Amino acid sequence: MAKPRKLKNEDQKADNSEAVVRHQKLCLSIDMDKRRIYGYTELEIIVPDNGIVGLHADNLAIESVTVDGEPAEFEIFPHYPHLDSENRWCSVSSTTSAADAAGSVYLSSLERELVPNLLIMCCKSVQSASEQQGLPNSENGLQSSGEPKQNVKLVRIDYWVEKAETGIHFEDNVLHTDNQIRRARCWFPCMDDSSQRCCYDLEFTVANNLVAVSTGNLLYQVLTKDDPMRKTYVYKLNVPVTARWISLAVAPFEILPDRHSGILSHMCLPANLSKLRNTVGFFHSAFSHYEDYLSATFPFGSYTQVFIAPEMAISSLSLGASMSIFSSQVLFDEKVIDQTIETRIKLAYALARQWFGVYITAEAPNDEWLLDGLAGFLTDSFIKRFLGNNEARYRRYKANCAVCKADDSGATALSNSAASKDLYGTQCIGLYGKIRSWKSVAILQMLEKQMGPESFRKILQVIVLRAQDTTRSLRTLSTKEFRHFANKVGNLERPFLKEFFPRWVGSCGCPVLRMGLSYNKRKNMVELAVLRGCTATLGTSAMVLNGNFDSENREGDVGWPGMMSIRVHELDGMYDHPILPMAGETWQLLELQCHSKLAAKRFQKPKKGSKPDGSDDNGDAMPVLDMRSNSAESPLLWLRADPEMEYLAEIHFNQPVQMWINQLEKDKDVVAQAQAIATLEALPQLSFSVVNALNNFLSDSKAFWRVRIEAAFALANTASEETDWAGLLHLVKFYKSRRFDTNIGLPKPNDFHDFSEYFVLEVMQ
Questions:
Q1: Distant-in-sequence, close-in-space partners of 130: CB < 8 Å, separation ≥ 6
Q2: Which architecture does CATH list for 510-536+560-596+632-655?
Q3: Which of the two ends of the chain, N or C, has the fewest CB atoms closer than 10 A to its terminal CB?
């Protein structure tokens, strides 16, 4: 066995770009008692000209390496050598310099992880053409005689892992892996690189009372001749994937086949079987919906959902090709309804990632936002179809609000090397990872609004159809290709796309719009003043933008492409005015013609009110408060900016209190209702009309329950001496009318017949 060594700089720079893994076989035995795995892996590799193959292998004990059956020399060195802390930290003199030093250490560690640390010396001789015939290529085809000669070697590595700390985890009689970045190397030698994909043969030998579930199709299971008897599970994955998506879970699982589809199965520990049966009953609906929406069959031959105890799980979700590992916290029994929505969305999202992220992958780190966004978009289509349009719009509105608050630096620039490639994948972790994911979905939904839902759906179908083309060697997708599809399939014009992608995808920051209105009675028009800003500082936004693809030199903030709609609700109806340009001058003064005939007729009536000096009121300069306090003076009921959420924007709209009350009471859109409640709650001075409007909305059983909950919180937050604690009194009265039994003087039992009413009352307990 070779000893680990510290690789020299010139060794680290050895060119391994030509080495390609065409196929890999993994055979492992698992000893739960000793927390140990041992076995071997065989890799069919196209060896580069220098004869050296570099693999990734962290915390693995390599016993031997053979090449085509012959012992081979190899060198292995640790990725994490002991650093000279004195030299590295001697310059630290403040918190700022300490942060810089820590950041430098972290980045250097990430850089070292990219370098192969298991170097295998292979013979440089090239096989003859006759010897190469019949060997499978990287996509399970046959190498044609017309292709150039390749030095293909079969490399076998015998190794073992004991008491692993990352990548693979033991807990009692349960073992599972995780798909954290660059952690596949911690349980089997591989090319742990997003550009390396191959098919796999997998064999796992476990105790007879355990079940081993892994990626791919289960071919068979066979008992061994060991004493005591053990069982070997044999899997085959015919779809080339990266090493990161190879997963394994071993435990005394209970297996629940799906009642509606033979390729779906669900597994959990015995204590959770009843919860599992109740939780996954819906799942075939999501599975069928995705296949129907994409007009394609599931890309893998099977799909398995595995649920393990929460104390064992590294994260709530760990993805693998054709399987997902969840924490059993998402499971619920028939008596629990609180978890239903979140669990279904989580399971649906994991399934969507199988299509976009595992099966179809990003061409480069700068393109990962696109696959993440497409998976989120597909999940939103499930929410809209099975959980309702109100749920989908409300969740998207809240996600957009969160993005606007956090999109203020280069870390949220989706397709920018500083935020993607240079961070080595870590930009997808934590809070910023969630913000980037929400922003990706919002951008794709903006494109869907521009081209129409059917055109966008057609693009996704084309992407999947292209990936299933067996003549293509790779199943990758780039931002540039998607932009091409938006033009050719979505019929969006090139000038628009040339502005859209650099500004939204390659840059950071969202538009901030501050609006105020005045009604011009003489002209029967709404005068709308708009000030446009950006959530990101001008310097940050311009710096990121100028470094992005297809961007031109820009002087200052030129805005965003397109026109925003202003929706005016008048006495005679609703009218949309797509007249607000998102580029150009930051100050805008717009005029919106009113359509109400009633207002025009009233203007023709003789004026009854005149000033003591005999002069008339100036209709062109009508006081704003006069117009807003009396509906008879104006045809306006309320106004909304960007009602269809066509922009990812932070909007501050200044309109009279009565208009906000009208919006809350009369607008059926859940986003409009939530915006009205947030504005009314934040008013510096509250009137009884506001409190009554919030109470009336809370009591409306036809309103969406999530917005009713916001109204309840608003009533609680606005209760004060100024309103004689009216909000609190309304809440108590509402709760007692639903939950209090006057005959016995005690609360009534929970009523689960009306879920929305239950959720509203639950927040008051």
A1: none
A2: Sandwich (2.60)
A3: C
- Over residues 246-285, the pLDDT tens digits come to 999 999 999 999 999 999 999 999 999 999 999 999 999 9
- Exposed, middle or buried: residue 685 (CB in 10 Å: 0-12, 13-18, 19+)? exposed
Closest CA to 432 of 452, 445, 418: 418
Report d(CA 349, CA 142) in Å as an integer.
36
Which CATH fold would you assign to the domain 19-78+151-246? Immunoglobulin-like (2.60.40)
Domain 361-505 CATH superfamily: Neutral Protease Domain 2 (1.10.390.10)
Whether 361-505 and 510-536+560-596+632-655 share one fold: the answer is: no
Of 720, 654, 709, which is closest to residue 686 (Cα–Cα)?
A: 720
Indicate the helix (H) or strand (E) that contains 588.
strand 587-593
pLDDT, tens digit (0-9, with 9 covering 90-100), for 505-538: 999 999 999 999 999 988 899 999 999 999 987 6
User: What are the angstrom distances between the C-alpha of 371 and each of 34, 215, 368, 382, 460?
Assistant: 40, 21, 5, 17, 11
SS3 letters across 252-274 = CCEEEECCCCCCEEEEECHHHHH
Secondary element (H or E) of residue 390 = helix 389-406
For the record, the structure tokens of 745 come out as 């003087």
Give residues with Cβ within 8 angstroms of 222, minimum separation 6: 231, 232, 234
Q: Residue written as tokens 């030509």?
A: 18
What is the residue extent of each domain of the chain?
19-78+151-246, 361-505, 510-536+560-596+632-655, 657-764
